[in-house]
Amino acid sequence: MSTVLGYVSLLCRGTLVVVFGLSVVGKLRSRAAYAGFRDATGRLTGLSAGRAGMLARLVVACEVTVAATASVGPFSTVGLGLAGVLLVGFTWALVRSPESGRALECGCFGSAVSTTRRTAIARNVLLLAVLAGGIASTRLRTGAAPMGWDATGVCVVGAVALAVAISRLDEITSLFTARL
Fold this sequence. Notes:
The termini are far apart. The protein has seven helices and no strands. It is an all-alpha fold.
Protein backbone atom coordinates (compact mmCIF):
# COMPACT_ATOMS: atom_id res chain seq x y z
CA MET A 1 0.00 0.00 0.00
CA SER A 2 2.79 2.44 0.83
CA THR A 3 4.25 1.92 -2.67
CA VAL A 4 0.97 3.01 -4.23
CA LEU A 5 0.87 6.01 -1.90
CA GLY A 6 4.35 6.94 -3.11
CA TYR A 7 3.11 6.91 -6.70
CA VAL A 8 0.04 8.96 -5.85
CA SER A 9 2.11 11.42 -3.82
CA LEU A 10 4.63 11.96 -6.62
CA LEU A 11 1.90 12.22 -9.28
CA CYS A 12 -0.10 14.79 -7.30
CA ARG A 13 2.86 16.84 -6.15
CA GLY A 14 4.39 16.74 -9.63
CA THR A 15 1.13 17.87 -11.19
CA LEU A 16 0.94 20.86 -8.86
CA VAL A 17 4.59 21.78 -9.47
CA VAL A 18 4.07 21.75 -13.24
CA VAL A 19 0.73 23.62 -13.10
CA PHE A 20 2.11 26.37 -10.89
CA GLY A 21 5.30 26.49 -12.95
CA LEU A 22 3.29 26.87 -16.16
CA SER A 23 1.24 29.58 -14.49
CA VAL A 24 4.36 31.54 -13.54
CA VAL A 25 5.81 31.19 -17.04
CA GLY A 26 2.48 32.26 -18.56
CA LYS A 27 2.39 35.40 -16.44
CA LEU A 28 6.06 36.35 -16.77
CA ARG A 29 6.70 35.45 -20.42
CA SER A 30 6.48 39.11 -21.42
CA ARG A 31 5.69 42.54 -20.03
CA ALA A 32 2.35 42.48 -21.82
CA ALA A 33 1.46 39.11 -20.30
CA TYR A 34 2.24 40.32 -16.80
CA ALA A 35 0.35 43.58 -17.38
CA GLY A 36 -2.64 41.56 -18.56
CA PHE A 37 -2.49 39.44 -15.40
CA ARG A 38 -2.14 42.53 -13.20
CA ASP A 39 -5.15 44.16 -14.91
CA ALA A 40 -7.18 40.95 -14.63
CA THR A 41 -6.32 40.83 -10.92
CA GLY A 42 -7.80 44.29 -10.50
CA ARG A 43 -10.95 43.42 -12.48
CA LEU A 44 -11.42 40.13 -10.66
CA THR A 45 -10.95 41.53 -7.15
CA GLY A 46 -12.27 45.06 -7.58
CA LEU A 47 -9.02 46.45 -6.11
CA SER A 48 -7.39 49.68 -7.20
CA ALA A 49 -4.54 49.45 -9.72
CA GLY A 50 -1.89 49.87 -7.02
CA ARG A 51 -3.30 47.22 -4.73
CA ALA A 52 -3.97 44.88 -7.64
CA GLY A 53 -0.32 45.27 -8.67
CA MET A 54 0.86 44.35 -5.17
CA LEU A 55 -1.48 41.36 -5.09
CA ALA A 56 -0.30 40.24 -8.54
CA ARG A 57 3.34 40.35 -7.38
CA LEU A 58 2.45 38.41 -4.23
CA VAL A 59 0.58 35.76 -6.26
CA VAL A 60 3.53 35.26 -8.62
CA ALA A 61 5.96 35.02 -5.69
CA CYS A 62 3.73 32.44 -3.99
CA GLU A 63 3.37 30.45 -7.21
CA VAL A 64 7.16 30.37 -7.62
CA THR A 65 7.42 29.14 -4.03
CA VAL A 66 4.88 26.37 -4.66
CA ALA A 67 6.64 25.28 -7.84
CA ALA A 68 9.99 25.23 -6.04
CA THR A 69 8.92 23.49 -2.83
CA ALA A 70 5.97 21.17 -3.47
CA SER A 71 8.18 18.40 -4.80
CA VAL A 72 11.05 18.72 -2.33
CA GLY A 73 10.77 16.20 0.51
CA PRO A 74 10.99 18.26 3.70
CA PHE A 75 9.45 21.36 2.12
CA SER A 76 6.63 19.64 0.26
CA THR A 77 4.16 20.24 3.09
CA VAL A 78 4.86 23.98 2.94
CA GLY A 79 4.47 24.00 -0.85
CA LEU A 80 1.26 22.00 -0.72
CA GLY A 81 -0.17 24.21 2.03
CA LEU A 82 0.65 27.36 0.06
CA ALA A 83 -0.90 25.80 -3.06
CA GLY A 84 -4.08 25.21 -1.05
CA VAL A 85 -4.19 28.81 0.15
CA LEU A 86 -3.71 30.09 -3.40
CA LEU A 87 -6.32 27.78 -4.93
CA VAL A 88 -8.91 28.63 -2.29
CA GLY A 89 -8.15 32.34 -2.78
CA PHE A 90 -8.40 32.06 -6.58
CA THR A 91 -11.69 30.20 -6.33
CA TRP A 92 -13.10 32.64 -3.80
CA ALA A 93 -12.12 35.58 -6.03
CA LEU A 94 -13.80 33.93 -9.03
CA VAL A 95 -17.01 33.26 -7.13
CA ARG A 96 -17.36 36.75 -5.69
CA SER A 97 -15.90 38.78 -8.54
CA PRO A 98 -17.65 42.09 -9.22
CA GLU A 99 -17.61 41.20 -12.95
CA SER A 100 -19.13 37.75 -12.56
CA GLY A 101 -21.11 37.91 -15.80
CA ARG A 102 -18.13 38.53 -18.10
CA ALA A 103 -15.61 36.12 -19.55
CA LEU A 104 -12.34 35.92 -17.69
CA GLU A 105 -9.14 36.72 -19.55
CA CYS A 106 -6.39 36.40 -16.97
CA GLY A 107 -3.84 34.72 -19.23
CA CYS A 108 -2.66 32.66 -16.28
CA PHE A 109 -1.30 29.94 -18.52
CA GLY A 110 -0.47 32.09 -21.51
CA SER A 111 -3.79 31.26 -23.09
CA ALA A 112 -5.34 33.50 -25.69
CA VAL A 113 -8.69 31.81 -25.13
CA SER A 114 -10.95 33.55 -22.66
CA THR A 115 -12.56 31.23 -20.18
CA THR A 116 -15.80 31.22 -18.33
CA ARG A 117 -15.81 31.45 -14.59
CA ARG A 118 -17.34 27.96 -14.45
CA THR A 119 -14.34 26.53 -16.31
CA ALA A 120 -11.86 28.40 -14.10
CA ILE A 121 -13.70 27.28 -10.96
CA ALA A 122 -13.84 23.69 -12.26
CA ARG A 123 -10.08 23.80 -12.90
CA ASN A 124 -9.46 25.07 -9.36
CA VAL A 125 -11.72 22.41 -7.83
CA LEU A 126 -9.87 19.76 -9.85
CA LEU A 127 -6.55 21.15 -8.61
CA LEU A 128 -7.88 21.15 -5.03
CA ALA A 129 -8.72 17.45 -5.46
CA VAL A 130 -5.19 16.79 -6.73
CA LEU A 131 -3.88 18.79 -3.77
CA ALA A 132 -5.97 16.75 -1.30
CA GLY A 133 -4.63 13.55 -2.85
CA GLY A 134 -1.09 14.89 -2.61
CA ILE A 135 -1.44 15.90 1.03
CA ALA A 136 -3.12 12.64 2.09
CA SER A 137 -0.72 10.37 0.24
CA THR A 138 2.34 12.31 1.38
CA ARG A 139 1.25 12.15 5.01
CA LEU A 140 0.29 8.46 4.89
CA ARG A 141 3.43 7.47 3.01
CA THR A 142 5.86 8.09 5.87
CA GLY A 143 8.52 5.41 6.15
CA ALA A 144 7.88 3.91 2.73
CA ALA A 145 10.70 2.46 0.68
CA PRO A 146 12.16 4.70 -2.03
CA MET A 147 10.73 4.34 -5.51
CA GLY A 148 12.76 3.04 -8.43
CA TRP A 149 13.76 5.28 -11.31
CA ASP A 150 11.31 3.56 -13.66
CA ALA A 151 8.31 4.17 -11.38
CA THR A 152 9.48 7.72 -10.75
CA GLY A 153 9.73 8.33 -14.51
CA VAL A 154 6.20 7.04 -15.11
CA CYS A 155 4.86 9.26 -12.34
CA VAL A 156 6.68 12.31 -13.68
CA VAL A 157 5.37 11.74 -17.22
CA GLY A 158 1.86 11.25 -15.81
CA ALA A 159 2.17 14.42 -13.74
CA VAL A 160 3.25 16.47 -16.75
CA ALA A 161 0.42 15.06 -18.88
CA LEU A 162 -2.18 15.74 -16.19
CA ALA A 163 -0.82 19.24 -15.56
CA VAL A 164 -0.90 20.14 -19.25
CA ALA A 165 -4.48 18.88 -19.55
CA ILE A 166 -5.55 20.87 -16.47
CA SER A 167 -3.76 24.02 -17.57
CA ARG A 168 -5.32 23.77 -21.04
CA LEU A 169 -8.83 23.09 -19.75
CA ASP A 170 -9.99 26.34 -21.40
CA GLU A 171 -8.96 25.14 -24.85
CA ILE A 172 -10.34 21.66 -24.26
CA THR A 173 -13.74 22.94 -23.20
CA SER A 174 -13.81 25.46 -26.05
CA LEU A 175 -13.60 22.55 -28.48
CA PHE A 176 -16.92 21.28 -27.19
CA THR A 177 -18.66 24.62 -26.78
CA ALA A 178 -17.63 26.36 -30.01
CA ARG A 179 -20.25 26.91 -32.65
CA LEU A 180 -19.33 25.51 -36.01
